[in-house]
């Protein structure tokens, strides 16, 4: 049997989404439900794929199949395509497996020509010619790419000629005039006459749907969302019904519940005596559905009942298109409705309470990608209505932030120390700016994309960030122009990382707290999740936020972030620049009490939950002063010349710092650093155990291990010191020593490592870098080329590479569990908070995912979903 | 049963090398062969390992075992340790599984004290006291680290006091005086009296052997050779025989064949009436073995017969120590003799011809590490006819070397670090000089024979060496006179290790051609090898050299090396800095003819052998001008301002260039580069096919592929253009398009890649970098710490990591062959010429290894070995 490429609605169902597209699958499903759906057929996505495989020609075999299905539709409808007496008209729509901007719009009234129009005129009256002129215009614009303005000109000419006010009031004569002018325009713009043959119209329309799959907009959207270019689109061909048949006719779109608030009432818009495109085109002002309840109460009630039936059937809130033709209601489309985060939560809870959904379905119904909005401070909505933005960039990390402009990391630190909230405003950021980013409330850059350094680091820090804002022009170190206005260092601005908008001055923000409904959804999610959610947090504030959001542990405390604090960076620098172990130990002694206090604060909050503390990780030069003043001050403290100090700093330079002297390599060269951190950590644990009586769970994590010998060298020393301190204090502290798995070699040798380590945590950022062989900071140079040229479908730093990197993780987990079946395994890279990556983590055998505090609720829901 | 830690010679054999050390195992084997070996026992390497495991204490259990074996030796020898009437004396020697500089020297005459000496005097005469004073001195120096100069002073005092000329002529009274003084020196320097108790002497001696395992010298040597610090050393305790019993007594060392030339005659040195250390100490001038043939013909004949028996037994040339005690010949040690590369080849061929070895054994007998010497330059013969040598010494290790004089190891390192070729010029060398020898091109000493430290170590390192050049007189640390002319540190000289001649200044060297014997060995090697040897070569000169050395293809032409040529770098820069595709194509047009000629030259030489050409690989900024003048010139050519040009150059900066925009990523961003290279390559192939009629085998290699889409994107375009060019030219060119596997992700996804690629070649340099997560350029910062702290046993860039990286290679090969069983797989990283890595490549399923031209013969032999 040959492969089937074309399906009647009655042959399909809702599960055939990938073949029929969302639209076609739902029309099929509604047909089976006995709902009033004009019948039709679907040219499948397979036909589209084949179209592209075969040099953009629709194969004869498929053309014949389309003709056969058209015959079937003629039988079902009792009408005939192009017939003089009882002609069939159809609509043609695109429909991929997910809806997608840039795809072809609907073409209505296909099948019209002069003869058909004359014949239909007898039945429909003037609507027949109105539909005809609409077909020519839509076909020209949508399928042939003719500019709308030509038709507008034609229409204006006719309206003037006949002195008619609106296109709603055209006389038969005027309409016929319009049609002739439209046909002339077509031949002028397209180069050949408007096709008279309905079948030619249909095939051209189908082909233009196929072509619309590859418009730049559609491609861009797929790139952005990581959808495959190989899915293709389906084409839905459906018998026309007419909302423009005068009195008692209407057309509109409506949600089964309010998509902004979640309130349970039909919510939407409609127009009397119109066709579908009038509602969306914005040329006529549509009426709210509440009007319909009054003017067409029976239709409204019927529609409401259908909506509830569909909600019950699909177990979700629906977004529907409908047409009323002379008092008869038809449903033209249904799909799950898009909604705000707030509505999503309310609807899910309500549907469960109404018995429409199970708790599990409610959890699955939440679109985790929009939940972010519930978790970050936002600007006051009332305020936003009143102000104008001054610039727009890419929304790189959500949340609203206000503060004074700092043009350098040093300025940021300066203002932060003065107690000011700071917006770090840079051409682009680099690892040298980390300290400045850390103390800023928001980050704004003129260059870079969604995976630029600023974007990635800001997301990791949970800070508001707008990147690629090309409206900013920098003049000097302390001045920039934003859309013509000069801003100086210290001036106030506001940025919205959720929209990419930049505002002048300090806008009012409102903190968001988790609603009761949201809390319920999160609780339900946990019930269906086999993994725990930990957090990556370095400060007591972050820790508290994560606990509020339901984190069950800390998967990553980056101790170096503590080192950047302004009151201790100098001691850290002194330590790094020490030329002897003794000198280094003196500097470490200064850091010890600060670090101990950091750990105490965290342990006190975390009580008996696990706290995974990663030892010093980044290349040392990241801590180095660059400003002359800082160098001079440090030289004085260290009692060396600035020349000597500069020489030491220079000697720390590395060609590829990402692949240099960092991670556990630092601690192996200078074990005294790891020992200081151990002393601080264990003493803190002892103190807080004494203070609170909780059984703490400190987990010491050694970074960047590639060989079990590295782990053993450090773990032996760490355990020795820890045991001694614990014994001397006579307090029970159950610390554990584990490692990050972030190098390909560590994956391959995970069995050897697992024998020695108490736990493993995958650092998927570095693992992705090393597996692909490119660094996040440098990938910007070619990643866009890769996405444009379809070499990658998504950025592996956003969502875990489930082809390659995942295989290394699978190997590692299998090897580790082969020697220690119950070893605790987590993931603490940025992928930990990414729903797409979580889908993989769920089935890969992890015990927990760890993510930034603001991603904790998202991770909880994603983990609860199927 | 308890583990055995101590073995009688009669309990061991040659296979127990790892437990008994080389010395102990061979003494055991000789015992079984019925050769005249003084009996004894071996404290095993396991005892040494346990010594270090147990905080450097010899366990009581082992002490008791030593005592039991000592009792057995007493029974076998019929003598008793410390006995008054018939005392047993023993020697104590270190012996690891491989011989190693820095280990403890021999201690002879152990078991002596006042009573024993008095008793032995009755039997041995004055030799008894001579042996006693030697024991005290050796024990003090070797086991207790007392400085030799104290004993020299004592000896000088006594010689003066009794007016005696040499220590050979001491009277009984004088000897007793010496002994008393030595004992005083001992108590003064060591802090307690010289131990009287023979058992105490023995245990202290054994412990000091254990300690010598961890001297800095021994550790450095192990690090250099990648030997494990965990092997430990054995200790051999053997009954003394005396070469210093007057007339008819002698001691010496000899090879069964000439170790410099391979000539078949006993070759060595001996001393009448002496103990072993006199021969190596250089204090007395030894006689050649040919003298012994005349003075002791029967002993000589017996020794010759034993030597031949040992050669037949071990299937190899032997290096033996012997002692003649009053007309009785004893063998004290045998081992495979170190030899020059030239001798190695001759001996192997001779032994096969004599039926002692099979061809396979002959190939396996070659030490690939010294073969280098046959492959390095010799002095130009014409030049040699015109110049006069300034001095002559012994030709200790062949090869010509020129360089600046360094009088100390530290100076040698200093000049080496400045990029200079160095001739280390010393009175004599000692183990402290190892590092200096390692960095020198040649070694020249004023004293010592063919078995002196300098000679032995230089041969081991395959370095040119002239010893015993008594024409050199040293004045200070930075000056010496050679035959009247003053030479200062840094002056240039030349030495010929094949002739022993020394020349003033820097002589011209010439390439060496492969001898007939060597050619035979290479041919035999090929017979036993399953893999082919290709070469990495970028220039016609390199290609020719590799062909001369037997390369069967080119595994890697680095096209970027061609780009650096001074006449084309500007066009390359122009291409890189182009701001549009058009601009870039103009620059590429300039490069095309040059690149085409490069390929033509190579194809012409390679004829029908495979030529694998890698497309542009390094980060673009590597090509950028940095000098102001270059930037200004380039700006002029490109018609832009220097400011703009500097900005473009700055924009090419990458944080981690190794992980940035390079490899195939360049060609994906700028396909026109790959297309220019394709055009150059295919046109060159067409031209040379027409010119020569050969069926060329060009193989196009795309670097740094991590995803099959990258490969396909480029391969499609490359094949399209190639096919068109070939079709237009109407010439048959069987080009292939393959890729390098050098990223972990490429290994994991090698099956997907192999479906599309015609061949795979592992780039193990980059693969090692990415798998370990450190770059070769930056690893210097910690790799020494890693080796010092025993975290790594060797540098993974020198020898392939056969724990981790090899697993990725195994996975890749298995996956690739699972989809394309016969796909050609090679390796073109630097590991390709490393014998240790080759051992892995042989069994991993590779078709070929590719290495630099000078490593080709080494790779051929290594591949032929088991």
Alpha-carbon Rg of chain A, integer: 32 Å
DSSP helix count of chain A? 36
* Most extensive chain-chain interface: A-B, 50 and 48 residues
- Low-confidence region ranges of chain A: none
- Helix content bin of chain A: 40-55%
Largest sheet of chain A: 8 strands, mixed
Question: How are the elements arranged and paired?
Answer:
The structure is a homodimer of 866-residue chains.
Chain A lengths: L5 E3 L8 H16 L7 E4 L1 H9 L6 H18 L2 E2 L5 E2 L1 E6 L11 E4 L3 H11 L2 H18 L3 H15 L9 H19 L7 H15 L3 H10 L8 E6 L10 E6 L11 E6 L3 H6 L5 E2 H7 L1 H18 L3 E8 L2 E9 L4 H13 L5 H7 L2 H4 L6 E2 L1 H6 L4 E2 L1 E4 L2 E7 L2 H9 L4 E5 L7 H6 L2 E4 L7 H9 L2 E4 L4 E5 L2 E4 L2 E4 L3 E5 L4 E4 L4 E2 L5 H13 L3 E5 L3 H9 L5 E5 H5 L5 H8 L4 H26 L3 E5 L13 H11 L3 H10 L12 H6 L1 H22 L4 E6 L5 H22 L6 E6 L2 H5 L1 H7 L2 E4 L1 H9 L3 H13 L16 H15 L4 E4 L7 H10 L3 E4 L4 H9 L2
Parallel strand pairs in A: 3-4, 16-17, 17-18, 18-19, 26-27, 26-33, 27-28, 28-29, 29-30, 30-31, 31-32, 32-33
Antiparallel strand pairs in A: 1-2, 2-7, 5-6, 5-7, 8-9, 8-11, 9-10, 11-12, 13-25, 14-24, 15-19, 16-23, 20-21, 21-22, 23-24
Helix pairs in contact in A: 4-5, 5-7, 5-8, 6-7, 11-12, 13-14, 13-20, 14-20, 20-36, 21-24, 23-24, 24-28, 25-26, 28-29, 31-34, 35-36
């Amino acid at each position: 049997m040959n492969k089937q490429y074309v399906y009647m609605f009655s042959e399909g169902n809702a599960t055939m989404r990938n073949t029929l597209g969302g639209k076609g699958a739902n029309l099929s499903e509604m047909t089976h439900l006995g709902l009033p759906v004009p019948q039709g057929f679907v040219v499948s996505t397979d036909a589209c794929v084949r179209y592209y495989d075969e040099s953009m020609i629709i194969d004869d075999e498929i053309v014949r199949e389309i003709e056969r299905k058209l015959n079937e539709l003629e039988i079902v409808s009792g009408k005939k395509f192009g017939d003089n007496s009882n002609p069939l008209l159809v609509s043609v729509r695109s429909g991929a497996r997910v809806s997608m901007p840039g795809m072809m719009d609907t073409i209505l009234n296909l099948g019209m020509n002069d003869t058909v129009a004359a014949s239909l005129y007898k039945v429909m009256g003037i609507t027949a010619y109105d539909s005809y002129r609409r077909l020519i215009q839509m076909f020209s614009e949508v399928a042939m790419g003719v500019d709308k303005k030509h038709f507008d000109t034609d229409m204006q000419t006719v309206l003037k000629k006949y002195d008619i006010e609106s296109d709603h009031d055209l006389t038969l004569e005027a309409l016929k005039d319009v049609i002739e002018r439209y046909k002339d325009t077509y031949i002028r713009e397209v180069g050949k006459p408007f096709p008279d043959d309905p079948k030619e119209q249909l095939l051209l329309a189908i082909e233009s749907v196929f072509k619309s799959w590859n418009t730049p907009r559609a491609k861009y959207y797929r790139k952005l969302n990581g959808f495959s270019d190989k899915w293709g689109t389906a084409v839905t061909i459906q018998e026309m019904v007419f909302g423009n048949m005068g009195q008692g006719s209407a057309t509109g779109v409506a949600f089964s519940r309010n998509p902004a608030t979640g309130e349970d009432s039909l919510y939407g818009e409609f127009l009397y005596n119109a066709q579908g495109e009038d509602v969306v085109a914005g040329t006529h002002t549509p009426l709210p559905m509440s009007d319909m309840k009054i003017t067409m109460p029976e239709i409204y009630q019927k529609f409401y009942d259908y909506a509830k039936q569909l909600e019950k059937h699909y177990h979700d809130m629906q977004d529907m298109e409908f047409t009323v033709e002379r008092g008869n209601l038809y449903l033209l489309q249904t799909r799950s409705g898009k909604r705000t985060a707030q509505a999503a939560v309310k609807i899910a809870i309500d549907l469960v309470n109404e018995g429409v959904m199970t708790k599990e379905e409610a959890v699955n119904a939440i679109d985790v990608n929009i939940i972010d909005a519930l978790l970050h401070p936002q600007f006051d909505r009332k305020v936003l209505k009143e102000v104008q933005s001054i610039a727009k960039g890419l929304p790189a990390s959500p949340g609203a932030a206000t503060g004074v402009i700092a043009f350098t990391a040093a300025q940021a630190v300066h203002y932060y120390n003065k107690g000011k909230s700071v917006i770090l405003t840079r051409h682009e950021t680099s690892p040298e700016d980390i300290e400045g980013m850390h103390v800023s409330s928001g980050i704004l850059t003129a260059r870079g994309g969604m995976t630029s350094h600023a974007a990635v680091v800001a997301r990791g820090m949970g800070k508001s960030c707008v990147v690629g804002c090309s409206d900013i022009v920098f003049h000097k170190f302390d001045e920039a122009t934003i859309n013509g206005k000069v801003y100086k260092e210290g001036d106030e601005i506001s940025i919205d990382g959720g929209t990419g908008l930049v505002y002048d001055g300090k806008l009012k923000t409102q903190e968001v707290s988790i609603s009761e409904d949201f809390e319920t959804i999160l609780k339900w999610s946990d019930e269906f999740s086999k993994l725990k959610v930990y957090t990556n947090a370095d400060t007591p504030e972050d820790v508290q936020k994560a606990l509020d959001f339901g984190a069950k542990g800390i998967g990553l405390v980056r101790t170096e972030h503590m080192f950047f604090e302004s009151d201790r960076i100098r001691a850290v620098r002194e330590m790094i620049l020490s030329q002897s172990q003794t000198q280094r130990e003196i500097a470490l002694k200064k850091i010890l009490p600060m670090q101990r206090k950091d750990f105490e604060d965290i342990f006190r909050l975390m009580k008996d939950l696990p706290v995974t503390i990663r030892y010093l990780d980044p290349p040392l030069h990241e801590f180095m002063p660059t400003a002359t003043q800082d160098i001079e001050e440090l030289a004085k403290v260290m009692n060396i010349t600035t020349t000597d100090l500069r020489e030491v700093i220079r000697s720390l330079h590395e060609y590829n710092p990402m692949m240099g002297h960092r991670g556990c390599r630092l601690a192996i060269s200078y074990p005294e650093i790891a020992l200081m951190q151990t002393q601080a950590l264990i003493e803190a644990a002892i103190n807080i155990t004494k203070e609170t009586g909780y059984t703490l769970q400190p987990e010491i994590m050694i970074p960047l291990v590639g060989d079990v010998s590295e782990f053993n060298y450090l773990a032996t020393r760490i355990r020795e010191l820890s045991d001694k301190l614990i014994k001397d204090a006579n307090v029970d502290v159950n610390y554990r020593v584990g490692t990050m798995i972030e190098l390909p070699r560590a994956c391959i040798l995970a069995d050897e490592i697992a024998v020695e380590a108490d736990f493993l945590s995958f650092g998927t950022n570095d693992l992705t870098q090393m597996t692909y062989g490119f660094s996040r900071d440098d990938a910007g140079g070619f990643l866009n080329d890769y996405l444009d040229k379809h070499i990658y479908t998504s950025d592996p730093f956003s969502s875990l590479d489930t082809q390659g990197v995942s295989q290394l993780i699978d190997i590692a987990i299998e090897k580790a569990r082969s020697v220690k079946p119950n070893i605790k395994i987590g993931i603490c890279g940025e992928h930990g908070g990414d729903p797409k990556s979580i889908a993989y983590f769920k089935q890969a055998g992890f015990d927990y995912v760890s993510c930034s505090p603001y991603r904790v609720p998202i991770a909880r829901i994603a983990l609860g979903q199927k």
